[in-house]
Amino acid sequence: MTTEATGTPDGPPAGFREGVPCWVDAQLPDVAAGRRFYGELFGWTFDETEGPEAGRYVQAYGEGRPVAALAPKRDGRMPTVWTVYLATADARATAARIKDAGGQLVTEPVRVGPAGTMALAADPEGAVFGLWQGDEHPGFGKQREPDSYCWTEVYSRDKALVDPFYEDVFGFDALEIEEAGVPFRIWSPAGTEAGPETAVGGRSLVTGEFAAEMPGHFLVYFSVTDCDATVAATRRLGGRVRVEPLDTPFGRMAVLADDQRAVFAVLEEPVQGSVEDPSQG
């Protein structure tokens, strides 16, 4: 991994506040196919030094800046999925809070060379997310710009169980709103006033539109300049459309799956004045 930013011992990874999404990766059966799909869809390039095409962890870049990574599935029983990582100053301390709050550790904190320390966790309903304590690799070099990460939300069935979990573990300030008739909760970093201008993630509900067996899960969004064109490109590249393009108060969005069935969303944000990035410390 190639970024040179350095974390600090008494704060979150450089540039990212506690609990803020700072990285995403996709676990895929075929990393080489993933490179072709996302390379064409988003214009990403990939770090050739991370290993052979057969598939070690491969970092993706947008305009030369780190945006995501693709990783090979080590076990065919593992889901093909995009995972979001939340920034932490101390992965072991956060892991302990996760357990105390009713969550579980899928992977205990482990050092990833000089890049940082990672862990995988699950909330009380089983939605999986990562922790990242950055060192030489603090996280996104590009985000909230076209063809890069812009948002995440967790889908749950029991908000009374899930909401306190994330707010206790990460200290989020929260605001309950309604989106298309569904109660939706947005989270802002601790110490900020919760609202659309400061939100870094949210919680939606698994409603009757989902399959009965659908578990709690995270959905990762990427910003695009043209939602409909991205949907058309996804189909052309062998992917699928889970939710057709629709207009929301936050922009035009769609839910897609790549040609290996990893699900993600895209958002074409309305043109507006610039706002302060709440992820930055």
TrEMBL record:
Pfam families: Glyoxalase (PF00903). SUPFAM superfamilies: Glyoxalase/Bleomycin resistance protein/Dihydroxybiphenyl dioxygenase. InterPro entries: Anthracycline_SecMetBiosynth, Glyas_Bleomycin-R_OHBP_Dase, Glyas_Fos-R_dOase_dom, VOC_core. Residues 20-134, 148-269 form the VOC domain. It comes from the Bacteria. PANTHER family: CONSERVED PROTEIN (PTHR33993:SF10), GLYOXALASE-RELATED (PTHR33993). This is VOC family protein. It comes from Streptomyces triticagri. The lineage of its organism: Bacteria, Bacillati, Actinomycetota, Actinomycetes, Kitasatosporales.
